[in-house]
Design brief:
By secondary structure, the protein is of the alpha/beta class. The chain has a single domain, classed as NAD(P)-binding Rossmann-like Domain (Rossmann fold, 3-Layer(aba) Sandwich). It is 40% helix and 15% strand. It contains eight helices and seven strands; from the N terminus they run βαβαβαβαβαβαααβ. Strands 3-2-1-4-5-6-7 form a seven-stranded parallel sheet, with helices on both faces. Helix 2 links the parallel strand 2 and strand 3. Helix 3 packs across helix 4 and helix 4 runs parallel beside helix 5.
């Protein structure tokens, strides 16, 4: 008996990626395009560099302008994507923001802004995409971007920790509800990566040394390090993977 090779091809798929301008979102969008997917990028400003990279791979690209701090328009986002593409097959909830302050001084606006972008928009955009997939009788893949702070508490990032802990729980709940409908919901938990959100940590000589001292790989992650995990979870090779939170962390949690 011959076992068929797993398929990592995303040909004829459309992937919606939030926050695809730079960093992790850009790397994920380009990786999915490399595997064959067309890309719809959602955010506040056109991701011109990402668009050029996707076009260079021979894939189609569309930009949908949306402010995820006001996530009431999730249905409109999906409708806008469908004006360019026939369907939505993959959703990557990557967009995220962070606010830093002592818990005793943390204010309500910084709490609400982070929870709106990092958690509320994840749920309602996932809901809108799932409705589209189920109504069309198709399969779908949803990939959320969690964090090391989905597992740990951190310091001075109360709303970020709450949001990423929420993403982990929400990923499992949606996997439970939507697996019977042919939708795989999983998450990637990046470790310490070189992004705009970690600029303050990398600039702090003491914290930078502490972080590197715990990472077995001995370096900060590069956005391209997420490519394999993203393509795997988006592809038919992961059809029996549900509710997983996959760390891509250079061994941080194993230390």
């Amino acid at each position: 008996m011959t076992t068929p090779a797993p398929s990592f091809s995303l040909d004829r798929c459309t992937a919606v990626v939030t926050g695809a301008n730079t960093g992790l979102g850009q790397a994920i969008a380009v990786a999915l395009a490399t595997a064959g997917a067309d890309i719809a990028a959602v955010g506040r400003t056109p991701p011109d560099d990402t668009a050029r990279s996707v076009a260079a791979l021979g894939r189609r690209f569309a930009f949908v302008e949306a402010d995820l701090n006001h996530p009431g328009g999730a249905g409109a986002i999906v409708a806008a994507v469908l004006r360019t593409f026939d369907t939505v097959d993959i959703l990557v909830n990557n967009a995220g923001i962070i606010r830093r302050n002592d818990a005793l001084r943390f204010d309500e606006r910084d709490w609400d802004d982070v929870l709106n972008v990092n958690l509320k928009s994840v749920f309602f955009l996932s809901q809108a995409v799932a409705r589209h997939v189920i109504d069309g009788g198709r399969r779908g893949k949803i990939i959320n971007i969690a964090s090391m702070l989905s597992f740990q508490g951190g310091v001075r990032v109360a709303s970020y920790t709450a949001s990423k802990s929420g993403v982990a729980g929400l990923t499992k709940l949606l996997a439970n509800e939507w697996a019977p409908h042919g939708i795989n919901v999983n998450a990637i938990a990046p470790g310490y990566f070189i992004t705009d959100n970690t600029a303050a940590l990398r600039a702090d000589e003491k914290r930078n040394a502490e972080i590197l001292g715990r990472i077995p790989a001995g370096r900060w992650g590069e956005p391209s390090d997420l490519a394999g995990a993203a393509v795997f979870l988006a592809s038919p090779a992961a059809d029996y993977v549900h509710g997983v939170i996959l760390p891509v962390d250079g061994g941080w949690q194993a230390r």
